[in-house]
Amino acid sequence: MAVTIFKGSDGKEYFNLTAESGVITTSNDPEDLWEKTGNINFPYQFYNTATLKLERYLADAIVSASGTDTNDVTIEGLDEDNNPQVVTVKLTGTTVVKLKKGFWRVNSIKANEVPFEGAISMYNEERGSGTIYAYASAGERDTKMGLYSPSKTLFIQKIELLSGAEDIINTIVINKFIPSEEAGESIANAALGKRIPIKYIQFEKPAGVMPSCNCFEFKNPHRISVGESIIVTVEEVTGNNVIRCNIEGYFE
To answer: Would the pTM count as exceeding 0.85?
Structure first.
């Protein structure tokens, strides 16, 4: 499971996110930490200067790359008011399923029965499949995106990183994402939003050693408020690599 939320013995509600990249190379960095290449786009709001209205484009369509994916999936995330939203739908293979209520933020797509036969994508039906908001690889049962949008205040305590290759230096950026609301801004920029770096991390796995975890703790837990998101970006690698990430924190 990519996202786990549980209660501790102290009564606090704890958070754990596990993410994994696809193969990242020197030719395609920087990119976000997810199994699809490139940057993660977000459902967005866009101030239309022609109509003088704030328009929102939600993640309201889901589809598989395989015609044999016909089982139920559960989508978890946030609605337009940043409230928790959970929807279960039945996939219809390569035929797009339109959701009755779209998602403002998608935190996970989970297979309820068997692993996905094909890659699963979510996007806005009106805007088309060229801009993907959430993605799960074939053979998986859940998304592995380095992304989370809380419905209540989240404090990030610790980040663990694991390199899949030896002697490759990796530079990771932990970003806070804030939606853009600037008038006249391009749709592409609105979908990317504003990213504020909160921590830069450089690490590598030396040759000839067992896989080791590189742990980084915040001296003061970093606050992610409602309406914001945390997103992990691979800024640079010095060779082909797969990077795994684990983020721990707690809710206020």
So the answer is: yes
